[in-house]
């Protein structure tokens, strides 16, 4: 696995496809790794001529871990965020956007189409706003602008996200814990087959297990606050995709994100929750391909 020294840290990354094709930078979400992108999604972009770049965010996968920062008290951080008290994250989402910028520098890629999911969508938004010259387009999937007035997760989704994995649990217990989590936040209209879900989770656990990084990333999300002023500065082609049945980041968050970016295309997918199920890969690629190829019509619609 190649690594890059970027923004003062080591970033594990992988590239696929024709280096002469449109560069597409994929940014994953909370606690996820570069292999969390469905392989059929990556292969689909490659088949469409794209040069795909995936990487592990800081504090996840094989990239630099911030062990020295300690593990935050999540219940206390949640309460502070609710009442509007300041948080002191180990790093910020801006730092994570700069990691992506540094990776492009390392790869000598001047500009890229930036695609992010969930927390990765937030990082992609910041990248597009803060590094406009390096951005060809933005795709924000199941993400949010961070406005405080937007609805939060359902009670079940919040509980699932904040429930720690069994301490000292076996591999099978860890797999089951994550299966239970994804069943709560996943797509009700497109349930992932049990075998496929367990296989995906197993691959990620075999590569890296790092709960402390998830906790620090959660605090970074909470500390980032409202990105609306930055979203309003984006002048690049923007595509916003969101599930109508997302229990973790409700669909109003995607609608709001699109409303903040001039000319953004909004696509709401019925039955989609907070995951990338195999049944939707073809539809997602069909939405993203014309966007990346510069052929996206300037309108909003439900998918």
- Gap between N and C termini, in Å? 36 Å
> How would a textbook summarize the main sheet?
9 strands, mixed
Write the CATH architecture name. 3-Layer(aba) Sandwich
Structural class: alpha/beta
CATH superfamily: Alpha/Beta hydrolase fold, catalytic domain
GO biological process, one term: glycerolipid catabolic process
Pfam families: Abhydrolase_1 (PF00561)
GO molecular function, one term: triacylglycerol lipase activity
Keywords: Hydrolase
Structure description:
It is a single chain. With 303 residues, the chain is of the alpha/beta class. It has a single domain (3-302), classed as 3-Layer(aba) Sandwich (Rossmann fold), CATH 3.40.50. It is 41% helix and 16% strand. It has 11 helices and 9 strands. Strands 1-2-4-3-5-6-7-8-9 form a 9-stranded mixed β-sheet, sandwiched between helices. Strand 1 (3-6) and strand 2 form a beta hairpin. Residues 297-303 have low confidence and may be disordered.
Summary keywords:
16% strand; alpha/beta; 303 residues; Rossmann fold; 41% helix; 9-stranded mixed beta sheet
Short description:
The protein is of the alpha/beta class and 303 residues long. The chain is built from eleven helices and nine strands.
List the helices and strands and how they pair.
Blueprint: E1 3-6, E2 9-16, E3 23-27, H1 39-47, E4 51-55, H2 74-83, H3 93-107, E5 112-117, H4 119-130, E6 135-141, H5 155-162, H6 171-185, H7 194-207, H8 211-224, H9 228-231, E7 238-243, H10 251-260, E8 265-269, H11 281-292, E9 301-302
Helix pairs in contact: 1-11, 2-8, 3-4, 5-6, 6-7
């Amino acid at each position: 696995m190649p690594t890059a020294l970027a923004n003062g840290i080591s970033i594990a990354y992988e590239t696929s496809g024709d280096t002469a094709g449109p560069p597409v930078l994929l940014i994953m979400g909370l606690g996820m790794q570069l292999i969390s992108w469905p392989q059929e999604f990556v292969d689909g972009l490659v088949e469409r001529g794209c040069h795909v770049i995936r990487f592990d965010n800081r504090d996840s996968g094989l990239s630099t871990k911030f062990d020295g920062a300690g593990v935050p008290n999540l219940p206390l951080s949640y309460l502070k965020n609710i009442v509007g008290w300041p948080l002191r994250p180990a790093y910020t989402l801006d730092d994570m956007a700069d990691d992506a910028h540094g990776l492009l520098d390392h790869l000598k890629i001047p500009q890229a189409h930036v695609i992010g999911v969930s927390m990765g969508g937030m990082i992609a938004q910041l990248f597009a706003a803060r590094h406009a010259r390096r951005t060809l387009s933005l795709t924000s999937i199941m993400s949010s602008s961070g406005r405080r007035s937007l609805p939060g997760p359902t009670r079940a989704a919040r509980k699932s996200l904040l429930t720690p994995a069994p301490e000292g649990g076996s591999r099978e217990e860890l797999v089951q814990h994550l299966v239970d989590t994804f069943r709560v936040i996943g797509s009700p209209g497109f349930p992932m087959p049990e075998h496929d879900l367990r296989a995906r989770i197993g691959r990620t656990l075999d590569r890296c297990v790092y709960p402390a990084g998830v906790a620090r990333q959660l605090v970074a999300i909470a500390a980032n606050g409202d990105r609306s002023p930055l979203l309003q500065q984006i002048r690049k082609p923007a595509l916003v995709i969101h599930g109508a049945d997302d229990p973790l980041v409700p669909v109003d968050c995607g609608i709001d994100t699109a409303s903040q970016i001039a000319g953004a295309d909004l696509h709401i997918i019925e039955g989609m929750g907070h995951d990338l199920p195999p049944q939707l890969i073809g539809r997602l690629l069909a939405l993203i391909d014309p966007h990346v190829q510069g052929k996206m019509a300037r309108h909003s619609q439900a998918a």
